[in-house]
Each structure stands twice: as C-alpha cells, then as structure tokens.
Amino acid sequence: MTHVLIATDGSEQSLKAARYLRSLLDPASLERVSVIAVVRPLAAVPFASDFGEEEHAAQEAEDAGRYSFQRAAQEAVQRVAEELRDMTPNVDTMVRGGAPADQIIRAADELEADLIVVGGRGKGTVAAIVLGSVAYQVLHHAPCPVLVTR
Fold first, then answer.
1. CA-based Rg of the chain, rounded to a whole angstrom?
2. Based on the structure, what is the number of domains in the chain?
3. CA 138 to CA 100: how far, in whole Å?
4. What does the pLDDT read at residue 89?
5. Considering the entire predicted model, what is its pTM?
6. Are the beta carbons of 123 and 133 closer than 8 angstroms?
7. Locate the UspA domain: which residues (predicted)?
C-alpha cells in the first residue's frame, strides 16, 4: 500500500500533477493521500504596542493579507483533495508555514510518505538552481521518490 504526499501551490500545474497521479496509480494500491500547501512567512514585525497610529493601521492591513494567504492555501489543498477523494477515503490536508521545499520534505519524512508529487513549472536546470525551484529542492533532498510533472 502507498502513502502519497501531493504538494500544491494553488497553480494549475499542481492540479495537473494530482490528475496525472490518478492515471498512474491503481486505487487499490493507494492507502492514503496527504495534500500539503506551504505559506511563506511574512517578515517579522515589531509588537503592535511599538507602533504609532499609522503603523498600527499598516500592521492590521498586513495581518489581513496574511489571513488571505492562509485561506488561499486551504482552498488549494481542498481543490486537490477533491480530485482524489474517489481514489481513497483517506485524504488528509494540511497547510504549513515556512520555506516550501523544507516543509514538504519535513512532512514527507514525518508522514513516512512513499512518494511525493509536485508540479514543475518547466524552468531549465540553470534557472531552477539560480531561482531555488521548490520542485528541484524537493527532488534532491526528499526522503522518498519524487514525481515532478509538467
């Protein structure tokens, strides 16, 4: 039986990766699917009591933006989960904060995933190294096999 971790960033590539997984795996071999989205943390800011009135209003606006990132990530994992619910009843979702590649790798290790599925954007090798592609980092540091789809 297989436990698959699917990473999503809400992009169409992520959804295509989930759909591609459907074509590869026999549902009978699939024990569990975990879907993860990672929200990058916003820059640390001083405590609200350190702000004047204008700065406090700016902090409230930034906090509102943070919640929208969280909501978007939750919607992204739900969208991918819905694509796979008929393959197995065991579909879990999670949203974590941090560096995406690090959190995907950590989740795969913690969950003892047998396979990680990520969507790639099709950048060349040099661009991936320079830009620090999440798929590239996961591919080279994951504790299990990685399927990168285009």
1. 17
2. 1
3. 9
4. 85
5. 0.78
6. yes
7. 2-150
DSSP assignment string, the chain: -EEEEEE--SSHHHHHHHHHHHHHS-GGGEEEEEEEEEEPPPPP---GGG--HHHHHHHHHHHHHHHHHHHHHHHHHHHHHHHHTTT-S-EEEEEEES-HHHHHHHHHHHHT-SEEEEE-----HHHHHHHT-HHHHHHHH-SS-EEEE-
CA distance 91 to 84: 8
Confidence at residue 81, expressed as pLDDT on a 0 to 100 scale: 95
Beta-bridge partner residues of 6: 35, 117
Q: How many angstroms separate the CA atoms of 133 and 117, rounded?
A: 14
- The CATH number given to whatever domain includes residue 43 is 3.40.50.620
Among the listed residues 27, 74, 70, the one whose alpha carbon sits nearest the alpha carbon of residue 4: 27
Tokens 């320079």 appear where?
A: 130
For the chain (length 150 residues), average pLDDT per consecutive 10?
92 90 90 94 48 53 63 93 90 94 97 93 51 82 93
Phi and psi torsions of 101, nearest 5°: -60, -45
The parent domain of residue 19 ranges over 2-149
